[in-house]
Amino acid sequence: MSIQDISPAVSPIVEAIDVHKSFGSLDVLKGINLSVKKGEVVCLLGPSGSGKSTFLRCINHLERMTSGRILVDGRLIGYHERGGALHEMSGKELAAQRRDIGMVFQRFNLFAHQDVLTNISQPPILNRGKPHDEALARARELLKIVDLEGRGNAYPYQLSGGQQQRVAIARALAMNPKLMLFDEPTSALDLELVGEVLNVMRKLAADGMTMIVVTHELSFAREVADRIVFMDQGVVVEEGPAREVLDNPSRDRTQAFLKRMH
Ligand code: ADP
Ligand code: MG
Question: For the ABC transporter domain, which residue ranges apply (predicted)?
């Protein structure tokens, strides 16, 4: 065997191991295991209340797990491991980790008093020490990617919901994240604005971005996801290639959910 035959171990970008999360006596996540490879697009489906948002929030430690562990690009998120025990990171260390993880929410939380270019360029200036000129040049580039070239001087209130959400995506991308998390990014939008946001996400996926997308857009999931993970009541019920899970679900709960979606 030549050395070329031994493929290097490709460590996943996201590795979630037996993640549990309770709120008081409510067990919301009951042992989630998920591994996402570099460049992979995973769509997370499931009924409302199944724990999808909680799980995404655990990935960047916006939510503190009850037990389990999550690694992003090989590094434990939120904790240091010493002597077999987990110790929570300082806020500063956590902030450093979060820079590598972009998150886009249902509600686009742009700064209302800043124009689009400032919204996009400010995070890398403040958090990565990027020179002002460079950050602005990159912001203009990102505006092209999200199909908003020339709208840099607009204020959020002057933009439609779809345009604001695309600015929010550009803003997350400005930090050069290793991973993008989307939590129902089109759920708050009027129907006619959904497509323009999905188009941008499609482009990112085609460009090799590693993405976990919580969505109810089944046609998007079918077309773009490498893998679908179906969650219900805090567990992963079923996962597999998009077509397999959507067209031929093996579990009753997945079948029932998909039937309700049509
Ligand atoms: P999904 O995103 O799949 O709709 P969530 O993760 O938002 O589900 O919520 C899962 C469950 O956890 C729900 O029952 C919800 O009410 C509960 N939950 C979420 N966040 C909190 C919280 N901060 N405190 C108490 N319960 C919560
Ligand atoms: Mg949710």
Answer: 14-258
